[in-house]
Structure formats: C-alpha cells, structure tokens
Amino acid sequence: MGLVDIARLISEKDNIAVVTHVAPDGDAVGCTLAMVEGLRSFGKKAVVISRDRAPDNLTFLNLYEEYTGTSPKIPKESGLLIALDCGNLDRLSLDLDSVGTVPVINIDHHLSNDMYGVENHVDTKASATAEIVYRLLKLMGVTITKGIAESLYAGIVADCGSFSFESTTGETHIIAKELMETGIDFSMIHRVLFKTRDFARLKLMGKGLQSLEERMDGFVTFMYLNAEDFNSLSISDRDSGDIVNYGLESKTCDVSVLLKEAEGFYRVSIRTKSLLDARAICEAFGGGGHVRAAGGNIKAVDVEDAKRQILAIIERMLPDGRSD
Fold first, then answer.
1. pLDDT (tens digit, 9 = 90+) per residue, 142-176?
2. Dihedral sign, CA of 87, 89, 90, 96?
3. Which domains does the chain possess?
4. How many angstroms separate the CA atoms of 62 and 72, rounded?
C-alpha cells in the first residue's frame, strides 16, 4: 500500500498506538517518537507502546520519557496500531494478546519483512524507517518541528552508520538536509550516537577487542563476550551492538562477528564490507537484518561450536571455497 493510502487510513482514526521491535535501536526509537509527536500535532491521541526501555543515549529526544518499557499493552480505545521498523509480528515490543482485532499498519524497510499488517508499506531502498516516516508525516501535512526533526535525524544516521553504509542514497542526504534546516544540533547528535560512551561500555569494548581473532586467513574476525563480562560491569548484553564494527577495520576482513553468551544460546551480530550478505548469513540460522548489518540467536554447545556453525555458512556462500 502507498503512503497516500496509509495517510488516509490514519486520518480516519482518533486513537492510535505506535510500536516498534524489541531491543529498540536508534532508528526504531527515533521513528516511533517522531510518529507519535507528529500524530499529536495532527490532533490525534497517540501513545508509545513498548515493553523495552529506549537506549539511554537517546535521552535528548522529545518524548523520550514516554519510552519507559512499562506500556506493553495496547489501550482498549485504540483504533489503529502502527508498527514501525519491525520485520515480523513476534518481534513487536508488546503484549501480542492485546492486539486483538486492532488493525495493524506495518511500515518498514527490511527486505525480510513478513507483511504481517492489514496494510503494509515496506520500502527496502530506504536507509532507515525514519526516512519513510518523514515522507508520511509530510504527506499528512504535519509541520516538521525541531523536535520531530531531531528524532528522525537520529533514526536515519543511526541506521545508515552516519551515512557510511551502502543503504545511504541521494534521498537520504536530501531528507537529512531538510531536517538540518529546522535548526537541529546535528553535530551533537553525531557526537552522542557515535563518539560518547559510558565508562562501563568502554571497558566492555576493551574486553571484546581482547578476544579478537582471525579465521579464514583474516577474511573473518570473531569477538566474544561471555556472561561474566557483562555481569562484572553491570551492563546489559543489549548494550554492545557497535563493538562488532571494530572487527571489520582489519584490512583483510570482510565479515566481522560478535558472539555474546546468553542462557542456552549465543546472540550474534554480523557486519560485512562488500563480498558477503550479512542478512543471508544470519537468515541461515533464523536471524535477519540488512545486507551489511544483521543479527540473530544461534544454538550451540559452546562458543567454538557457534563459530564453527557460522564459518560453515560463510564457506558455503563463498564461490572460491576459501577456508582456514
């Protein structure tokens, strides 16, 4: 369904709930808060639905205080649920039983989207769902205030790696330009998202880098964080996604893998440079994501078993049969 039709459906509802995926990242939070603020400016009663808290590096965003992680149920008066940046129904950060008969509009940019809404708009060419939300709000006639612009800009730069990922397009830059013209402090947003970390996270990064190793003649790098690494620093294993990017800085590396110990499985984050599709690697063990950034959970008896499984997937995808 096109955005014009979605804008029409939204105009027919007065009470609207907005949700995104579990463990929300910058794009998820940014587009959700921008959508809620935009809907309210349009005269709608809009609420954030989430069982997860927003990352604490996004406290500068308008309405951040509403992203508490304590509102997993859709209010009974809601006539519409807008699901943003989430590829399938099971990953929505809410109590699924509360959806009931509420119609779901699914807006996303992931190629692996299940089209689970009664109406779906999935634009895989968008660098971030925040791009799509920007276009939708403009279609609705919403004035893009400085507050809305900050949320959208944060969402875009978070998901396109500060304009460094291949998903970045000319339109990404055009939208960024228009958002900057509202007077946002774009330099602060980049600094907070990419150059500022809590001391505990810096220590965690050090632990990850200490575990760095090469496989397949340097084509693949692995990092590993165990439960004690997180416990000793009193930090969640969700607060470590960007560590995987450092493995990709090796000259010979095309695939960087971060493994994090969980209960009975390992969380996997994968980044790739150019030859292999990170999403395809992760889909092989039930995960998903983007071409250059993806993740998922893998069942393994120990961390070496997890590495062997991932290496076997990578080797199958390489035409030249490269191996250790």
1. 999 999 999 999 999 999 989 988 899 999 999 99
2. positive
3. 3-194 (3.90.1640.10), 199-317 (3.10.310.30)
4. 20
